[in-house]
Design goal:
Layout (H helix, E strand, L loop, with lengths): L1 E2 L13 E5 L6 E6 L2 E6 L4 H15 L4 E2 L6 H11 L10 E2 L5 H13 L6 E2 H7 L6 H9 L12 E2 L12 H10 L9
Length: 188
């Protein structure tokens, strides 16, 4: 389920819950609204967590609350399943309110059109959304993805086979692609 609504000045304040969970790629910061999962952040040390809480507070006009009502329970279960090797797509309610325009269009195509264990080139993804010359803009959309892993920007690679960039770091991208069987797992 996708949520299209974007918070505006006239809407009521949206409650935001957050937590940090351990994963095979390090601690992940997760945040959700009543609309769905709204934010995933890599390398969630204390400093990054504080920056995320400040940012979310400003974006939603409220102080995020640590895991109060269970909004994140299903997201946590699905992430655990994913890191255990479950290839099912993340079928979670997503709050898309931190994306707009072209970025949202690209991220939605990525979420629905690039399944577990596959990759797509930046240019191909641009073509799929009707903007064949916008490979660099697709790269920018990947960098602005508020829901990495769940909206799998790690599956977007260069047309020549290179990994391309990744907000979580190239080693994290390699680990996620190895988990999905796209790259060989490291020997040690």
């Amino acid at each position: 389920m996708d949520i299209e609504a974007e918070p505006t000045g006239g809407e009521p304040v949206v409650a935001v819950e957050w937590t940090v969970v351990e994963s095979d790629i390090g601690p992940l910061f997760l945040a959700a609204t009543g609309r769905g999962l709204v934010r995933v952040e890599f390398h969630a040390d204390a400093a990054r967590r504080e920056r995320m809480l400040d940012r979310l507070g400003g974006q939603f006009g409220t102080v995020p609350v640590e895991c109060a009502s269970g909004l994140l329970a299903e997201a946590i279960r699905r992430l655990d399943d994913y890191f255990a090797g479950d290839p099912r797509a993340f079928d979670l309610p997503l709050d898309w309110s931190l994306t707009t325009g072209f970025n949202r269009q690209v991220l939605r195509e990525l979420a629905t059109g690039v399944p577990y264990g596959t990759v797509v080139g930046y240019g191909e993804l641009a073509r799929r959304v009707g903007q064949p010359g916008a490979a660099q803009a697709v790269g920018a959309a990947m960098g602005a993805n508020p829901l990495p892993v769940v909206v799998p920007c790690h599956r977007v690679v260069e047309s020549d086979g290179g990994l391309g960039g990744f907000g979580g770091g190239l080693e994290t991208k390699r680990q996620l692609l190895a988990l999905e069987g796209v790259l060989p797992a490291p020997l040690f």
